[in-house]
Please model this.
Amino acid sequence: MATAAESLTAFEPRITAFVCNWCTYTGADLAGTSRLQMAPNVRIVRLPCTGRIDPLFVIKAFERGADGVIVSGCHPADCHYTAGNYHARRRFAVFRELLDFMGIDTRRVTFSWVSASEGGKWRDVVNETVGRVQALGPFEAYHELAGRQG
Amino acid sequence: MARIGVFVCHCGENIGRTVDCARVADALREHPGVAHSVDYKYMCSDPGQALIKQAIAEKRLDGVVVAACSPHMHEKTFRRACAGADLNPFLCEMANVREHCSWIHEDRARATDKAIDLARTIVEKVKHNRPLQTIRIPVTRRALVIGGGIAGIQAALDIADGGAEVVLVEKEPSIGGHMSQLSETFPTLDCSQCILTPRMVEVYQHPRIKLMAYSEVDAVSGYIGNFTVKIRQKARAVDASTCNGCGACTKACIQRKIPSEFDERLGPRSAIYVPFPQAVPNTPVIDRANCAYFKAKAKGATKAACGKCAEACSRGAIDFDQQDSFVTEKVGAIVVATGFQLYRIGADQPQGLTGYGEYGYGTVPDVIDGLQFERLASASGPTGGKILRPSDGREPKRIVFLQCVGSRDPAKGMAYCSKICCMYVAKHTMLYRHKVHDGQATVFYMDIRAAGKGYDEFTRRAIEEDGARYVRGRVARLYRDGDVIKVHGFDTLSGEPLVLDADMVVLATAMRPQPGIEALAQKLSVSYDQHGFINEAHPKLRPVETNTAGVFVAGACQAPRDIPDSVAMASAAASKILGLFSQAELEREPTVARVDTGLCSGCFHCERVCPYGAVERREIRDRKGNLLKVVAEVNPGVCQGCGTCQATCPSKSVELDGFTDQQIWAEINALAL
Amino acid sequence: MKELQELAARLLTDGSAGVVIGYEEGPRGVRPAFVTRPDDVGRLIFDPRCVHNLATYLSPRRTHLKGLGRPAVVVKGCDARAVAGLLRESQLAREDVLLIAVRCGGVMRHPERHVDLRAETVADRCTSCDVREPHLFDFVVGEAPAAPPVTDRREARIRELEAGSPADRWAFWQEELSRCVRCHACRQACPMCFCERCVADKTQPQWVESSAHPRGVLAFHLTRAMHQAGRCVDCGECERACPADIPLGLLNRKLAHVVAERFGHHPSDDPSVPAPIGSYAQQDGQEFIL
Amino acid sequence: MRIGYYPGCSLHATARELDESLRAVASALDLELQELDDWSCCGATSGHATNHLLSLALPARNLALAEAQGHDRVLAPCAACYNRLATARHEIAADAALAARVARVLERPFANRVTVANLVEVLRELGPAITARAGRSLAGLKVACYYGCLLVRPAAVVGFDDPEQPTSMEDVVRAAGATPVAWQMRLECCGGAFSLARTASVVRLGRAILDDARRAGAEALVVACPMCHSNLDFRQSAMLERGEKPLPVLYLSELVGLALGIAPDTLGLQRHFVDARPLAARAAAEVH
Model:
């Protein structure tokens, strides 16, 4: 069993990112075409809009072993569907306070607006989140609760 | 058991360099439900696509996953390939292992693991894909063009000539845009009015173009093929149908000294005015802020303070009580062609830009910008085409031109190059030399960017034949000294500081989009960059489209553009629209929401959050007609597939095809393996 | 409650109501009463032990009451908000119910244990009650009562939890939720939980696992709290119905505070006031978004 | 308002009148100047011309002293000292590795929390207080504000005014009741340290500045930098033709002092080479 210290340095957090197709996903594409290097811990799940991102996704991601979650989409007023991000903003403002109130460390969840032309900002969101969650270590509390095998 | 084919692309070495594609293919071959898994150098090539078709046939595949570039690049390509092999195209998805993996990671082992994860995620998703049929919706074969400059005019003419109706909306009283203000145009020095006016008349007389000048777009709803646009026809206080454009009213007006916007504040105009002689439509408009009648009325005067124009009008066309009116138009496509404005130093500065006070624009007399020089040089201009100093009307013997004022300057202005200034400054020096034979033009520049056809030769001509003195360096400061302007500059080639006496200074200020472009973009839900320029769908492959289907872009509202660019983009946008209109019906992605009426409890949160009003109410009755319950139902023609209804629905009774709960759940689950 | 009984008798005799749903003395304390005959109105009572939110019987899920004809329901001010919730979300038509609002001076926290109304015995919600004089009604009965005793028990508990560290809160909730057996009594008791099939029962995909395993329990209570944000009328029935005494009210009140502070929304008995989740404002706070 | 005060070498020597006038003005405006205990040289040009680390460590030592003595802001009236202190604070804040090296060199705790203010910035903040206490003594006095090359640059480090179109000195002059003239040589170089090595250049540059100020109708020049003052006041005799009227050169704090009715000798006017006392006399006459 790696000692706690070793496991921390060797610890590579698993981050699931729920992003909107029109802005952040395209921003991540731009980060790709610009060859901006970033931590490989993030797996992107594409959704049409942040309006489609359901708190159940975040809960299920933690249940299935994620150590951190990113939710990102278009800046207010830029939404391709005009209002999806406004609904998401309200929904996640409440959800985040609920998570905090039930003792889930909200530093494990990053919310951001990344537009299609902000490849650099996406890289910063990824690297900053991976660094933050790496410092927090594996989400033992949730995973023990979940009794994950392996 | 699913029979899914996985195709891992090397993309030359774009993916292959950092992702071990063979190992990804091997790993996926072991994944449950995968019947075929190979890697290939160029999946999007013909042989690559043939691999897919062959595998579908041989292995009876019921799903295809291509682990390659971003779906934004080639999803359509591979779906078309699958359709070619009689596999429903919506059973094919892409795993983005290039932009989201190989290009952004160096560590080969971890990049390969990530690629395997991403491919596995999409395989799990595809297991839950349903065969979908594209949705067909009728197309309104009418187009809306916003902006009546050369780009808007060209687009309107091309579309109308292609047989479709066009609504052309122009904010100013007349179409023509900034091009109508120019004297002559580079690189051929042909007179701007001569090549533009015929086009403007052609628009005015075209049977299929409905010209709405002095109007603005108020609201836009709907989607490609079915936009509903509410347009505000601003009140001119002149009845366009009875007015014959004789101009008697403009001569009778008592207000003579209002700075003319068309002449860039160098010449006067009256309160009731026609912007320029060749204006189309040639109907005057009353400037209510400066008209004595309206100013008095605004202060509550009951008696008419003036009415000279009405008295002078033989046809009784003046109508002081005319109000703004609204018109609703149904169109199938929209072209944004709102053009540019120049960076106005010290005047209405956008927040954050405070640079260039040291160039004295607005404080030191005879310091003007490019458009003002055009008005001086223009025959219909305030000085009848003679180059005279605005301060004392004398002919300047020495003019200093400053390039890149506000452009290529991330610290104080905009970071981008405005593309047209090198050309029009060279043109200005030539016009100056032709009109003032003993005049000496000096140009301070950083580098001359004249990359168009015949462009560099044009600038060389300005230097070699027309004696323009080009000094490579910036100007530090300029100030008034007596009636001469002292220009402190630097010549980087000789390494000497330079102090010149000038009679006039022309600043080549940066090109910026029209004010209010952000509000218009938000009405069209089109994205724009931090400067306000509209974002094209793809800089190289879809330059005249935007990410919002059905909305196209042409001219300087997308980026600094000269006239050839604008016309080319306008025709490109027009051909895209004519292509769109050539289909009887429009095919739309079937990623729309479906309500399971059995589970829906009729709380209608979905109806409240739907931005498109795609949710309708349906009564469920038993055989005897008793109302059992009222449920929600989605109109597939209106639904755009944003999915907000599904995330809002407490009981998850609505599913968005392409992003169903089952598919997202499968993707999240795949990440846990 | 002579006034209530006479009104009930009149409604039943002139046929404007098929059943009067009120409270009656039962073998083990006060219980809901379903009076269909005018001469049974004597059973109807009202006192601080009448804690049940009778609006839950108007939910379309209660199909067995359909046969009794148009109901006339006795509602306290807080219960009336639940009726407004059902109207707001199209589960009920206003003309399909008669509301007999009763002026209420506060009810017991544990009706079966206490008789007199004191700070220790009053229900948490009654202290901040601003609907002692009902607004949504067809009829109003009862005299204007004195203000209920003041208790800060629940708010203090929330403040205490908020002051602690995330780890403390996690420990607290894991301990409380460990007793949850997923009987869903809280869901059945709640007037605002009227879905045909609850997402917790959805199997394809199973977002919320159904076993009493901590993973499924946490997912269920997170989802239930999110669904109640801005819709809960704080009638306390979920907490009272829970066999495991899990303080669900803390979750509902916490989110009620969040929704009030962030969106200025307070539970209302006006059906036209939209729920906060599902509407938005340009200036909604986004300090937590990078 | 309490503020740390870093006089710098010139204010204890050639620019004593700047120190004296500043102290007089500060007490009149109840601004408590607390001179840093054991302050040392800021390194000036010789510092940054020889060694980068030295040029940052020297001013950083003074910032560390200010921190230790409980200041969160320190006033450096001399333009060169201000520039060195502000540049040090800016570069150290931007580069963690550099901060570590400087801390090692200083061998004292240094968290780089202190911000640096210059004479014009502080007097502009005190503008309303100056206007409230200033009489009409400077009414009608036409003054040319001379910034020199260093006072508002580089913009990234200085930042309190526009590097090309500054207005802060004019604001203070107006607050003091005098009238700033519009002239062109506000930011032109005065020759700086070439005063000894290339005196002819300094005379030529200084003369151009004085001529332009005189042409603009200025009755006095106002500066906020000891180097500019010595080049334009001490050297002015070499710049004048026979019989030409000299132009008094005042420090901004001296001008404000006159506005507040402080006696000329308390302001150090007697130390000027171009006699500025007639100005003081005129100001005194205005008051009665």
Q: What stands out?
A: Residues 563-582 of chain B form the longest helix (20 residues). The longest strand of chain B covers residues 215-223.
